[in-house]
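Just curious. Protein, please.
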Amino acid sequence: MALAAVLVAACATPTGGRDGEPAAAPSEVWRSDGYGWIVAITGNRAQTYETTSISCLPGGRALDQLGQPAQDGTVRYGRQGVALQTLHRGTEGRATLHLLGTAADVDLLPLPELPAACTRPMPDDPLTTFDVFWTTFAEHYNSFPRKRVDWAAARARFRPKVDSETEPGELYAVLRDMITPLEDMHTSVTGADGEEFFGARLGTRELSSRDLRAAVDEHLREDLGVTEIQNFAGGAISYADLPGGRGYLRLTRFERYREDDNSYLANQAELDRVLDAVFTPARVAALRGLVVDVRNNSGGYDALGLQLAGRLTDTPYPAFSKQPRNDPKDQTRHGRLREVTVAPADGPRYTGPVRLLTSELTISAAEAFVLAMLARTPVPSRVGTATQGVFADDMTRHLPNGWTATLGNEEYFAPDGRSFEGVGIPPTVTIPVFTDSELEQHRDTALDAPW
């Protein structure tokens, strides 16, 4: 039976009110098309639940409505006055959910009531946790055929290792070993004591971000004669004027630009401030070329990459499209294809030649940024090595025992229809980056490559 049918067939009034009385029933209940979410609106609060065919768990604390609905009916929800998502009621009984910082909306379909599974606690024993973990991947993960992994065979191999007496460390090792063959940096499991495992494409190096920044800065100063490197956002963004009238802009992440607030809106405002400082009218007029270095970028918010792309064009153009897997039993079926556009920023913009530097450490939102630059005019050159190959938004899922796991359930497509999931976006000029010999000799062949 499809997930939607299961949810509609098993509805009930939630329990858990004061003095044993039933809690207030939600006034609205929505099911996402893909993602496995239930959104329940009760009064001025929105609670998201994470579902599979065998489970329903709260997806964190409920969010508060912030202010009154906008004229178009959009309602903001968040915590402590900071908006985190919006809900827009559309036509024909449908709605859309937007998680701030993502690149596209999520379609919502109405449900008559909250599913019964969401109204009662789940067992938190090791076997139930294993089953929910396995089922979550089985019903939502985007890449089993691409990774040539037989997930049913993985269940047959690993489930006999788990029973009611399995220790937490043993269970963590089982879940880790199950997803290791996926070689996917968007797959992870986090245990109760802070243990955390992330997959990675074969050959991905573990290099210190701080050391890489220091090595590039030394090359800029000692070999290229750069006299000033401007650092912004706690060192996450750097800019330097290069010889020959070119500029060098480095971003090591698309998040955590402020120590006190990592919300999307705070990051958006900080990035705008930084880009105003970099793209001054005088500099934009004088630049003969711009190097954008995302070789060492761990990702973050897709929308921040689009914000940067908007500083590099005077004309709107297609960035990419995306769609979620939406059938628990058929990985080839997807929800609505969402088109994403790069919009010119309201401020000074640079529209000349751009060179992108990439590597396997160009991850997630950094890859979405590179994807969003492919249809720019003039087309940027891409120098280095292929990006990591993980584009889907991280889908965080809670497990019955309190642990969390992540996976990707979306497909991203370049404007020409290509998908780079699993393999990464290739460069136009292949040059190994951050090799032992280059780091030891303070060289940077990719940065120095002729235009």
